[in-house]
Automatic annotation (TrEMBL), chain A:
A single GO molecular function term of this UniProt record: DNA binding
Domain Proliferating cell nuclear antigen PCNA N-terminal: 1-124
Limits of the Proliferating cell nuclear antigen PCNA C-terminal domain: 127-254
Stretches that traverse the bilayer: none
Keywords in alphabetical order: DNA replication, DNA-binding, Nucleus
UniProt key word DNA-binding: yes
InterPro entries per record: DNA_clamp_sf (IPR046938), Pr_cel_nuc_antig (IPR000730), Pr_cel_nuc_antig_C (IPR022649), Pr_cel_nuc_antig_CS (IPR022659), Pr_cel_nuc_antig_N (IPR022648)
Role summary: This protein is an auxiliary protein of DNA polymerase delta and is involved in the control of eukaryotic DNA replication by increasing the polymerase's processibility during elongation of the leading strand. Involved in DNA repair.
One of the protein's GO biological processes: mismatch repair
UniProt-listed Pfam families: PCNA_C (PF02747), PCNA_N (PF00705)
Protein's name according to its UniProt entry: DNA sliding clamp PCNA
Entry GO CC: PCNA complex
Automatic annotation (TrEMBL), chain B:
Domain of life of the source: Eukaryota
Compartments, as annotated in UniProt: Nucleus
Organism: Amylocarpus encephaloides
Name of this protein: Ribonuclease H2 subunit B
Keyword Nucleus tagged: yes
Major subcellular location class: nucleus
Swiss-Prot/TrEMBL keywords: Nucleus
C-alpha cells in the first residue's frame, strides 16, 4: 500500500510537466525513502533522475517497494484536473493496476478522484556515481532558460566554457553567432539571483540546445539551477527542491563533429 | 400476511390481492402512484390460517428468499413471473361481474370474506397495477431446506467423510432455524415438524438411540430420492424449451451434406409434446424470467445460466435425430436431475450428486447415454473437420484478392498503431526525435547498468 499526501499539487504537476517532454513512459519507483524516477529519452543521450523524499509528503506511507509504470502524457491529463493549491494524495495497492489520485481543495470542499491505469515498463536502470565535477555553476533558473532560448534562435548547439573569468555560452549558426557571459555575482537582497562559479579546472563542452531548452521546463520548480561539468562526462543540470528532493537532468556532450 | 380470498371460477387456485395500507381509494381517473403497490399472487387453495410468508434460506444460493409456510399443507415457493423490460405490461384488475371476459385474473367480490371491503374497492373501479408481476406459489419439498442442514460438509467445512455423525432431528432442525430464524415458531407446530422429520428419514441412515431416532445423511439415499423426483419430472415431459435445448439438440446427428438438412426424420422415442406444453411448475424459470419473491433477478438468471452450463453441449450441425431406444429418456432424466440440482441444491451438494449419478451405483445406469453422446461428439468432430477442409478448398480461388485485402488491412492496422503510439507521446518527445544527436554518446556509455 502506497499513500503519499502532497500539501500542494503544484509540485507534482511541475515535475511531471518537466519530464513529460523528455520521456514518454516511465516507472515511479516507490520505497520507504520516497518516490524516485529514472528514465532516458528515446535516443538515450539524456537522462532524467527525480527523487521526491518521503519528507516532502505528509504523511508518507509505503509498505512495499512498488514500481508504478505510467504514461506521462496520461498522467499530465489527470494532473491538469488539479488546481495548484489542491492537496494531492497518491494511492496504490501493493500490486497495483491503477494509480489513484485524489485532489482536495481546502477552500471549496471539493474532492476529485482519478484512477490512472498503470502499465508494465521494462526499463534499464543505470547506476550514477557521485562525481567530482571540474566546474559547478549555480545561477538563477530563469537566467539559464533565457540563455538557452535566446541562443537556440541561432543554432542547434551551444558550447559552455567555464574559466576563472566566468562562464561563457557561445553558439554559431547560419545567420551569425552569439555569446553570453556570466560572472560571479552576489545579490545581498536576493540570494536567488546569485551567480556562483566553483572551478577546479577550465572546461569547455558542447551540448544540444534543444535538450537544454527541454530541461529548462523545470525552471518553475526552483529559483536556482546548478550546472555541473567535467570533460568527457555528461552535463548535470540540477533543480533542487525542498527537503533535499531533486530533479536532475544529464546530457551527453557533443564530441568531435563540430558544426 | 397471507390470507386467501375470492375464489376464481376458472381456476382451481385462488387469486388474491395483498393490499397495502398506503393505497388510497380509486377514483375514476387514475390516482397517483402509491409508493408500495399491491402485488398479485396465485396462492394454493385451503391454506390454513396459520400459513405465513416467511424469509427462509434459499437452499441453492444460501440467501434469504420468500416462501409460504403452511403447517398443514407444507412449504410453497414463490416464483415471480415477471415481464421483460423490453415489453412492459401492466395489470388491469376489475370485478368479474363487470368485465369477466376482459380479464383473466379477477378478484371476485361475491365470495364474502373478511377482506371483502378491500376487494370491493378494486372491483368497483378497477385497479391498475403498474408492474405486471405475478407471484405464483408452488409446492416445494421441505427436503430441500433440510439438505443444507443435513450436509455436515457444508455446515462444518469438514471434508472428511468419517466425521459424519448421527444426530437427532432436533439438532438438524436447530441448524435449519439458525439459517432461517423465521421458521422457528412453525417448527413447534407438530404437523409440520412431523413432515420434516419424515422427509429427513427418507434421505438418511437412521439408528435408534434410546427412544430417539438419530439421523445421518446418506448420499445414496439422497440420490435415489432426487432421481425419483427427476423421473417424475421427465415422465410428465420436460418443458418444450428444455426439451429442445438439452434433449433434441444434444441428440442431433451431424450431417455432412447440406441436402440432408431438409430431411427431417421423426424421432420415434420422443413422447407427445402435448404433455410438455403445460409448464411443469418446477421448470418455470426456463420459460419466463421468474424469480422468487425477494431474491434478486440476477440470482435467478445465474441459476439458469449455471444450469445451462452444466449440461451444455457442443452446438451440432443441423439435422434430425434418431437415438437408440431409451437413450432419449435417459437424457431427459439427466436433464431433469441437473435442473433440480442447479435450482434447489447448494453447489457442493449438486457436485456430490453429479459425481454419484455418473458412477451409477444406483438403479439407473447412464452408460448407454454416455456412450451414445460420445459417439455423437466424435461424429460431430468429423463433420466439423470435413467442413473446414471444404472451406479451405473453396477459398483457394480468391487467394489473390485476399492477399490484397490482407495487405491493406495490415497497413491500416499499422497506421492505427502508430497513431495510438503518437497519442501517448508529448510534443516535446516528438520534437526531440528530430534532434541531431550525432557526436553524442549514449548514457549507458557513461553510467553502468545496475
Amino acid at each position: 500500500m502506497l499513500e503519499a499526501r502532497l500539501e500542494q499539487a503544484d509540485l507534482l504537476k511541475k515535475v511531471v510537466d518537466a519530464i513529460k517532454d523528455l520521456v514518454q513512459d516511465c516507472n515511479f519507483d516507490c520505497n520507504d525513502s520516497g518516490i524516485a524516477l529514472q528514465a532516458m529519452d528515446n535516443s538515450h543521450v539524456a537522462l532524467v533522475s527525480m527523487m521526491l523524499k518521503a519528507e516532502s509528503f505528509s504523511p508518507y506511507r509505503c509498505d512495499r517497494n512498488v514500481a508504478l509504470g505510467v504514461n506521462l502524457t496520461s498522467l499530465t491529463k489527470v494532473l491538469r484536473a488539479a488546481q495548484n493549491e489542491d492537496i494531492l494524495t497518491l494511492k496504490a495497492e501493493d500490486v497495483p493496476d491503477v494509480l489513484n489520485l485524489v485532489f482536495e481543495s481546502s477552500k471549496s470542499d471539493r474532492l476529485s478522484e482519478y484512477d490512472l491505469k498503470l502499465m508494465d515498463i521494462d526499463q534499464e536502470h543505470l547506476g550514477i556515481p557521485d562525481t567530482e565535477y571540474a566546474a559547478t555553476i549555480t545561477m538563477p533558473s530563469p537566467e539559464f532558460r533565457r540563455i538557452c532560448v535566446d541562443l537556440m534562435a541561432l543554432s542547434e548547439s551551444v558550447s559552455i566554457e567555464a574559466s576563472k573569468d566566468g562562464v561563457k555560452f557561445t553558439c554559431a549558426g547560419d545567420i551569425g553567432q552569439g555569446a553570453v557571459t556570466l560572472r560571479s555575482h552576489t545579490d545581498v537582497d536576493k540570494p536567488a539571483n546569485n551567480v556562483d562559479i566553483e572551478l577546479s579546472e577550465p572546461v569547455s563542452l558542447t551540448f544540444s540546445l534543444k535538450y537544454l531548452v527541454n530541461f529548462c521546463k523545470a525552471a518553475g520548480l526552483s529559483d536556482t539551477v546548478k550546472l555541473c561539468l567535467s570533460n568527457e562526462v555528461p552535463l548535470l543540470v540540477e533543480y533542487g527542491l525542498a527537503t533535499s528532493s531533486y530533479l536532475r537532468f544529464y546530457l551527453a556532450p557533443k564530441i568531435g563533429d563540430e558544426e | 400476511m397471507a390470507k386467501t380470498r375470492g375464489r376464481l371460477s376458472k381456476r382451481s387456485e385462488e387469486a388474491k390481492i395483498e393490499n397495502t395500507p398506503a393505497s388510497s381509494k380509486q377514483k375514476s381517473q387514475l390516482s397517483t402512484e402509491v409508493t408500495n403497490p399491491p402485488q398479485l399472487f396465485i396462492l394454493p387453495e385451503n391454506l390454513s390460517t396459520e400459513a405465513r410468508i416467511l424469509q427462509l434460506e434459499n437452499p441453492r444460493h444460501s440467501t434469504d428468499s420468500s416462501y409460504i409456510v403452511c403447517p398443514e399443507r407444507g412449504i410453497f415457493e414463490l416464483t415471480k413471473v415477471a415481464t421483460t423490460r423490453t415489453t412492459p405490461r401492466s395489470w388491469l384488475l376489475s370485478s368479474e361481474s363487470k368485465n369477466s371476459s376482459k380479464l383473466e385474473k379477477v378478484s371476485s367480490p361475491s365470495d364474502s370474506t373478511k377482506n371483502d371491503e378491500k376487494a370491493d374497492k378494486f372491483s368497483d373501479d378497477g385497479y391498475v397495477l403498474r408492474n405486471a408481476n405475478l407471484m405464483v406459489a408452488t409446492p416445494i419439498d421441505p427436503l430441500f431446506f433440510l439438505l443444507p442442514a443435513l450436509d455436515s460438509k457444508a455446515a462444518s467445512k469438514d471434508s472428511d467423510k468419517q466425521t459424519k455423525l448421527f444426530l437427532s432431528a432436533e439438532d438438524y432442525l436447530e441448524r435449519l432455524s439458525a439459517a432461517s430464524s423465521d421458521i422457528n415458531p412453525l417448527l413447534r407446530v407438530e404437523s409440520l415438524r412431523a413432515s420434516l422429520e419424515g422427509r429427513m428419514a427418507s434421505v438418511c441412515d437412521t439408528v435408534e438411540a434410546g427412544d430417539e431416532m438419530m439421523y445421518r445423511l446418506s448420499e445414496n439415499k439422497m440420490l435415489t430420492e432426487l432421481l425419483k423426483k427427476a423421473r417424475k419430472m421427465a415422465k410428465q415431459g420436460l418443458t418444450p424449451s428444455m426439451e429442445e435445448k438439452f434433449v433434441k439438440k444434444a441428440l442431433e446427428v451431424p450431417t455432412l451434406t447440406i441436402a440432408a438438412e431438409d430431411i427431417v426424420e421423426e424421432e420415434d422415442t420422443n413422447p407427445a409434446s402435448s404433455g410438455a406444453s403445460t409448464p411443469h411448475t418446477d421448470s418455470q424459470s426456463i420459460n419466463a424470467s421468474t424469480d422468487s419473491a425477494t431474491s434478486s433477478f440476477s440470482e435467478a438468471s445465474t441459476a439458469a445460466t449455471s444450469f445451462s452450463e452444466s449440461t451444455a453441449t457442443i452446438k451440432p450441425a443441423k439435422g434430425a435425430i434418431s437415438a437408440p431406444e431409451g437413450v432419449a429418456d435417459l437424457l431427459r432424466l439427466r436433464t431433469a436431475l441437473s435442473f433440480i440440482c442447479s435450482k434447489y441444491l447448494s453447489p457442493q451438494l449438486s457436485e456430490t450428486i453429479k459425481s454419484l449419478a455418473s458412477s451409477a451405483t444406483t438403479g439407473t445406469d447412464f452408460a448407454p447415454l454416455d456412450k451414445h453422446l460420445e459417439q455423437l461428439a466424435e461424429q460431430r468432430q468429423e463433420a466439423l473437420a470435413a467442413r473446414s477442409l471444404g472451406d479451405i478448398s473453396r477459398k483457394r480461388g480468391f487467394e489473390d484478392d485476399d492477399d490484397i485485402d490482407g495487405r491493406a488491412e495490415k497497413k491500416r492496422k499499422k497506421d492505427e498503431e502508430d497513431k495510438r503510439k503518437k497519442a501517448g507521446e508529448s510534443r516535446g518527445v516528438q520534437q526531440l526525435k528530430k534532434v541531431n544527436v550525432s557526436g553524442m554518446k549514449k548514457m549507458s556509455d557513461f553510467f553502468k547498468k545496475t
